[in-house]
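Supplementary notes for students who missed Thursday's class. We covered one full example, reproduced here. Read the sequence, then the structure, then the short commentary at the end.
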Amino acid sequence: MISSIQEMMQDIGMRARVASRAMARASSEQKNQALLHIAKVVRQQATEIQKINQVDVERAKGNGQDPAFIDRLTMTPKTIETMALGLEQIVSLDDPIGKISALQKQASGIELGQMRVPLGVIGIIYESRPNVTIDAAALCLKSGNAVILRGGSEAIDSNTLLAQIIQEGLASAGLPKDAVQVVTTTDRSAVGEMITMTQYIDVIVPRGGKSLIARLMAEARVPMIKHLDGICHTYIDADADVAMAVKVCDNAKTQRYAPCNAMETLLVNQDIAQKVLPTLCKIYQDKGVELRVDDLTRKTLEANGFQNLVDAKEEDWQTEYLAPILSIKTVANIDEAMNHIEQYGSKHTDAIITNNKAQADRFLREVDSASVMVNASTRFADGFEYGLGAEIGISNDKLHARGPVGLDGLTSLKYVVMGHGEIRT
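Structure (token representation):
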């Protein structure tokens, strides 16, 4: 019997490492069969999934969790169907594993190429969102990796049920159940073990709040694919189409408040502020969004009869609200907008609304973020919307992956040499 958290995690790690060998040689047909089986069972057990999830939700409410947290935790019929669709979309994607880039003959006679291979064992540490259990496992499975999932204690019942469904899918395709393991203890020391298990885990992907990721950045010995904040901006340029700006910026903020790709700061060119701000801000206030504004924005809005505005403080420009709160700043030009993004942004997702191609091109080239958009809602910065099937997370780093991380981000390349008896002289 396993007598400690350390021994339990070591055992999980060893079994994952063994399973990763089997996953690396698994055929595309096996992997797709497992994914389709999981999608079928997810749909069949949708009512049971919601029932179990409600236990987690009620426990979180009883513990006083905020609405944004509850939103991330709750699994609706739409959430469940999106999981199933994501699984099916991953099935439709080309399997990258084992592909060799065009072999190039060298002067020595050898042929040199690169083969795409799995990373090996991936550890996912996440909070609140039980759908991550399915999304992350599916991407790791299709990319030939084994995965250790450590969800938050608040979603333990949901995650345990989903793990059982995943393991049933693996078994149906003749793949090892240990390829996807969920850490069932809620003891936080399990996280400390995971992030130092360099002998078993090749990369950690944290999905959660700032405090979790900050802790892992300070303590982890295993490399990470991560982002710390999602302070996303939209800049409405002087040459923007007003109706488009209103529609896109409304969606970027209010379609959902909790995701990391929701807009947190709106930047508006002073030459278009009078045309766009009154209409847009009425929509925000009608939807209950608190507006935190700079002096120029306040003058524009108060001249149009707006009340209940809050003065934006320095900390507002640095805050990921994940709530119905929006900071707004009126800027002189695109340079001031980009300087603001450079100073306060989190290199996650930033957008420009403009019909001026030269301004759009400058924004695309100069804004140093993982996703940069023209005339589109920041809410599109998502693996499912990018056609990745789902995402294991979003990376603000430049190595090893950047932006929504799908199949390719969960693989690496190794050189392969095809020889004909050549020797080096």
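Commentary. The longest strand covers residues 111-118. The two ends are 58 Å apart (CA to CA). If anything here is unclear, bring it to office hours.
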